[in-house]
Amino acid sequence: MMTIGFKLKFKQALNQVRLSWKDALCAGLAAGLAWFISVHFLDHEHPIYAAMTALICLAPGVPSHGRQAIYVLIGVLTGVAVGELTLLLPPMPTEVRIAIVGFAGMTIASAYSIVPAIIIQAGISAVMVFALGADVAGWTRAIDVAVGTSIGLIFSQILFTPDPLKTLHLAVERFFKEVALNFTLAADALERNDVSDAIKAMKSCSRTHSALIGLIGAIDVARSNARWTLRGRLSSREVVSLSARYDQSGIRLYASSLLFCEAMVNAIRKGREAPPEWLIEALKLIVENCHFIAGEAKLGQEFVFPDRSGRAEASLTWRECVIDIEMVETTLARFYKSRTRRNRLAAYRKKQILDAVREQIAERKRAEALLADEEKDKKL
What are the sequence ranges of the domains in the chain? Predict the structure, then answer.
């Protein structure tokens, strides 16, 4: 069991690295460029804040790099202004002054919007102005932060603008990988009939929830890019359509998965009746379909629609599990159909055109045959 758990965690780690290394590379390049500009063009000896700001703006996992850059700049400017003003306060113990400075900076920043990046940067900047002095952490730091923010915006909005469709697809892939892992653990718990394994499967829903949050964040980013970037405008209609579809399907799938795991834990804990014989196979089929949607299908593998005709009726203990698992199956099937709708429509239109061409050819041949018969009759 430990070996299986280690393999799953290692696979998750590899997936996370695969999804984040490009953003990390861009962040590193931006940090180096921000340092270079501050040193060679602004004569700042150690512009660490410029490099740090570029890293903060472009760090992997940030839903919107553009918004993050703006939020950081607003927070720093607010904190520096508050810190400069609090230097005018009368002498008092250092601890009291730091408490007042931090409170004032974060409170004023929260008036703009409850955005953690703004509030945190405002509080930190205000405290740093007092602790390090206005010359080190005041407007000099604000200039460095402006440089880092500008580099972050250039990288995220101009040079390396993400493809909104690719952003959506990557988030969908991660989400379905987590769903597949969730149901893999659930199937293992059913085979072992172990409550502790079932609880692990239920707890793994937290990772699915994190992936769902990432999917919703990716949807927001894709919509924003479709509105504000040239690359996004070229595919804005498809982005809007897919965003609405992914949002609804993702929430429904996560909710039904969580309900199934909770019902499974309760059913195994009661231990009154054995689960339906077909339930484990249904879970394994869900895992395979999730891998297929996530782009991890084996060679020749296709999406398989579940056949419910041969399923025996479940007992009262397992009836709730059956209802939830059927909801998962239905959601997956609808998602697959909606995802392949464009290809199926294109294939259908192509078939219609080919059928029309074949019909015209057949009519022409029939007309030619009639003419040939008439000519033969005339000769006779």
Answer: 2-159, 164-339, 346-380
Q: Residue 31 contacts by C-beta under 8 Å, 6 or more apart in sequence?
A: 50, 51, 52, 54, 55, 148
Query: What does the alpha-carbon distance between residue 232 and residue 189 come to, in Å, rounded to a whole number?
Result: 44
Is the backbone of residue 295 left (phi > 0), alpha (psi -120 to 50) or beta? left
What DSSP line would sit under 103-127, residue for residue? HHHHHHHHTT---HHHHHHHHHHHH
Q: Which residues of the chain have pLDDT under 50?
A: 1-2, 344-345
Count CA atoms within 13 Å of residue 46 on its CB side.
3
Residue 155 DSSP one-character state: I
What pLDDT, on a 0 to 100 scale, did the predictor assign at position 133?
Answer: 72
What's residue 215's pLDDT?
87
Instruction: Indicate the length of the chain as a whole number.
Output: 380
What pLDDT, on a 0 to 100 scale, did the predictor assign at position 29?
93
Can you read off the two tokens belonging to residue 35?
A: 């340092």
Alpha helices in 138-194 (DSSP H): 139-154, 164-192
Measure the CA–CA gap between 157 and 50, rounded to whole angstroms: 18
Give the model's pLDDT for residue 1: 45
* Of residues 167, 134, 141, the one with CA closest to residue 66: 167
Distance from C-alpha of 189 to C-alpha of 206, rounded to nearest angstrom:
17
pTM of the model: 0.61
